[in-house]
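Tokens for chain A. Residues wanted.
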């Protein structure tokens, strides 16, 4: 089943987009990771996942109809060649909403987080693009429908349609219409996410390729969906009870388990750099000394620290360059 067939009941490809539209979507950091697909074409996951959004960090995307024979895609102030992978992904995504050859767009995207560095820039990017297209073509789609559509561009983009805690329900349907983000209503004032940037450059193996290598070659991967399902239950309990230790332990274990499946792939898939491991060891040592701090990592070398506002001053002494986000405010 292709993407257009999935959306046939929601979208009738149009020739008349409205004038320019701009939208923002936040990046999100998964506490229970998405790693591996049951359907590559539709970006359907092997397991459900759960994330927290990063407030003001994410992507602003503007789309403008242009009188030209192809789309123009600008990323962080630079116009991309039509052959660039991101440009092709954007044009393919826009094709879901327009009749062939009927209209083209200038797409201007600005990320306030490093691009392709394991900080979920594609998630916020395709979520912002989905919102812009929804308004440009006057589709009036619900957030749930937008989440399904964003997922077709980038899997975890389905979580960036929403703010705060978001569960990506894996779904069971072959067409994926039940695989989308759902907002988790609980707030957690004082919860902090600290971005420790080891290397902000683009990673050498993108997440899509890394997932497929892991699924194809790592026998260890067979245990991953089972663990992720258990971790999701514990994280939802931690959020409901505001049990930070349970949240931190579960998120850190989940991230390390995902990276273990990558390392067990062939050729081995290692996103860590020496400084990544040194930062992990520093966090483990600080925890032994009484600082209640944990970390999570996506497919990249950068770490995201999880801690409460009470630990902020102490942690800034050890990580002075850390960028801190408080998705629900400081709780004071």
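Reply:
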């Amino acid at each position: 089943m292709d993407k257009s067939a999935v959306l046939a009941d929601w979208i009738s490809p149009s020739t008349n987009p409205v004038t320019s539209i701009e939208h923002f979507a936040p990046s999100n950091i998964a506490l229970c990771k998405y790693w591996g697909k049951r359907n590559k074409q539709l970006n359907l996951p092997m397991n459900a996942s759960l994330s927290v959004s990063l407030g003001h960090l994410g992507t602003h995307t503007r789309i403008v109809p242009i009188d030209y024979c192809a789309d123009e895609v600008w990323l962080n102030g630079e116009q991309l060649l039509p052959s660039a992978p991101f440009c092709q992904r954007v044009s393919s995504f826009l094709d879901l909403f327009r009749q062939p050859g009927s209209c083209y767009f200038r797409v201007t995207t600005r990320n306030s987080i490093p691009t392709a560095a394991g900080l979920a820039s594609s998630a916020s990017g395709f979520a912002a693009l989905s919102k812009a297209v929804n308004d440009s073509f006057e589709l009036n789609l619900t957030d749930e429908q937008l989440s399904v559509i964003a997922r077709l561009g980038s899997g975890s983009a389905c979580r960036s349609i929403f703010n705060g805690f978001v569960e990506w329900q894996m779904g069971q349907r072959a067409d994926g219409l039940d695989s989308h983000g759902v907002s988790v209503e609980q707030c957690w004032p004082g919860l902090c996410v600290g971005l420790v940037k080891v290397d902000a450059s683009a990673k050498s193996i993108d997440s899509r390729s890394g997932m497929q290598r892991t699924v194809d070659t790592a026998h260890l991967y067979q245990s991953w969906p089972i663990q992720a399902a258990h971790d999701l239950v514990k994280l939802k309990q931690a959020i409901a009870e505001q049990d930070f230790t349970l949240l931190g332990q579960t998120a850190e274990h989940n991230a390390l388990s995902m990276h273990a499946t990558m390392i067990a792939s062939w050729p081995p898939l290692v996103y860590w750099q020496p400084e990544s491991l040194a930062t992990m060891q520093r966090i483990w040592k600080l925890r032994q000394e009484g600082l209640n701090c944990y970390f999570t990592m996506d497919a990249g070398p950068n770490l995201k620290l999880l801690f409460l506002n009470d630990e902020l001053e102490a942690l800034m002494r050890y990580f002075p360059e850390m960028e801190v986000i408080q998705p629900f405010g400081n709780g004071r």
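The first helix runs from residue 3 to 6. The mean pLDDT is 92.
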